[in-house]
Amino acid sequence: MSPLLRRTKKNSAERTVTLIGKPGCHLCDDAREVVRQVCAEVGASWEEKDINEDEELHRAYWEQIPVVLVDGEQHTFWKVDAGRLRRALGA
Q: Which InterPro entries does the UniProt record give (predicted)?
């Protein structure tokens, strides 16, 4: 395989987790705690986006929140499994 075609594996500190949710959502609150804890453990950065403030996110994910993306790709929705997120982040 050509080196240009090979995917470079990022270490945890280079990864970004995005939590997409909305205020008042108890599943989002639960997901936020798991994401915060796992990212702190492995050194990944994370951000949160409010589905009510972004029409594109609302269209794409309104039935699935909370949604977790890892480096912009959907990882999971509704319930976040800490072990699975750790593995996705390379930890």
A: Glutaredoxin-like (IPR008554), Glutaredoxin-like_YDR286C (IPR052565), Thioredoxin-like_sf (IPR036249)
